[in-house]
Amino acid sequence: MKVEQIYTGCLAEAAYYIESAGEVAIIDPLRESKPYIERAEKDNAQIKYVFETHFHADFVSGHIDLSNKTGATIVFGPTAQPAYPAYIAEDGEEFKVGNIKIKVLHTPGHTMESSSFLLIDENGKENAIFSGDTLFIGDVGRPDLAVKSDLTQEDLAGLLYESLQNKILTLPDDVIVYPGHGAGSACGKNMSKETTDRLGNQKRFNYALQAKSKEQFVKEVLTGLVTPPQYFPKNAVMNKMGYANVDEVIAKGTQALSPAAFEAASNEENALVLDVRAANDFAKGFIPNAINIGLEGQFASWVGTLITDLQQPILLITEEGNEEEAVLRLSRVGYDNCIGYLKGGFEAWAAEGREIDTVNTISAEDFVEKFSKDNTLKAIDVRRKSEYDSEHVVGIENAPLDFLNNYMASIDRDVTTYVHCAGGYRSMVAISILKARGFENLVDVTGGFSAIKATNKLKLTDYVCPSTLL
After folding, report:
1. Is the dihedral angle over the CA atoms 165, 171, 175, 181 positive or is it negative?
2. What is the 3-state secondary structure of 248-284?
């Protein structure tokens, strides 16, 4: 028996490959099917089942394409109603994979169809639980993401409590917990950086499992939840209703366009020009009105947060060789309408003498010196509110990137505004959006808050433990 966790850091998502005696089960695959097919071929094995823990909100799963390519049966837990062929299992139903069994445990709460999958090994031992978004390491799934549910988040949190108490916490302490996500995912609020653990440790250390009653659990789980990204319900609908073949999406998105063809496509299709290069490279020169969301950061989640239309035509500017990776990452969160990329990259555009723009930057040291002498300088901190509340420079206002549209009216176009985040990624995203909206007097503080803090020259707010704020 082989159990492999396939973890994708930029989405903080875990898929699973389980093989026994030449048969394979895949749990919660990402959009691309090739890695799973190649992994099975390496074992000379056949993918028999694709298990889905629920209709995911934070990414588009690859279950449909994988099933179409391999003949594998898609399996959901009870109450799921997908708009494509799938097997809807009963609670407690077992599926044979080689010499092992996978048992379906219906665990509603995160969503109504949410199910966990219990691995029973060759000796009949309960070996591992693939808990999806029901149980994380250090946390449990948030109960406010269900699509078109008639239940309140309090109702769902109550169901989640019962699912945990009656289906998962009754299992032996040595059962391995394999969750659907790790730290960085917006599907929970307190997830550990660890991506697997023994159930016994979670019983002792997971804050949500310490509740003495359902009422206390509901309160603990719902306290501190932030608004989920706008693409979450849209991805859930795609996972329920179906989506385009990913190979076709990639073929369309990786069409190489000359600078002239790129400009024509931008005008004709009213396309968004998305520059996925590193922030420092973008600052030195970019196509006017392009938006910078770098591939090296949490690219997919920031695209999903900031680009509201999944059908928005997108043109890409990438480093050479990163075109397919960018299109694939877009497709993982439902952006299937990439229509091509700039052949030769930004350098090809500039070489033809076409119009370019740049971003003014300032070192953290120089910014600190200016701000120390004149604290009337306008500056904004685009980190999340929780980061800002923990610690920030006194006198600098918070305008979280997540909700930048809400703060635009308060930014004076005629006054130079300095922008920083934690390290420089998000501030460049924010500046690119503002410049595309006509703001010109913007300066990026390189290195962000971490570099500002390292100078030890500006007054910072005292750190306040979040528990004291409740």
Report:
1. negative
2. HHHHHHCCEECHHHHHHHHHHHCCEEEECCCHHHHHH
Residue (of 311, 305, 312, 242) closest to 270 by Cα position: 312
- What are the two backbone dihedrals, phi and then psi, of residue 317, each rounded to the nearest 5 degrees? -120, 120
Structure tokens at 255: 């069409």
> Which class for 300: exposed (0-12), middle (13-18), buried (19 or more C-beta within 10 A)?
buried
Short-list 255, 288, 258, 260, CA closest to 273: 288
DSSP secondary structure letter of residue 89: P
3-class DSSP state of 450: helix
Residue 307 sits at the vertex; the CA angle it makes with 303 and 308, to the nearest 5 degrees, is: 130
Q: What is the pLDDT of residues 188-241, one digit of tens each?
A: 788 899 999 999 999 999 999 999 999 999 999 999 888 889 999 999 999 999
292 touches 421 (CB < 8 A): no
88-144, pLDDT tens digit by residue? 999 999 999 999 999 999 999 999 999 999 999 999 999 999 999 999 999 999 998
Q: In the structure encoding, which two tokens stand for residue 184, read together?
A: 């960085």
- Local confidence band at 147 (pLDDT 50, 70, 90 cut-offs): low
DSSP label at residue 210: G
Please give the domain boundaries of the chain with CATH numbers for all domains.
Answer: 2-235 (3.60.15.10), 244-351 (3.40.250.10), 360-469 (3.40.250.10)
State if pTM tops 0.90. Answer: yes
Radius of gyration of the chain measured on its C-alpha atoms: 24
Cβ pair 17, 6 in contact under 8 A? yes
Residues 381, 234, 324: CA angle, nearest 5 degrees: 75
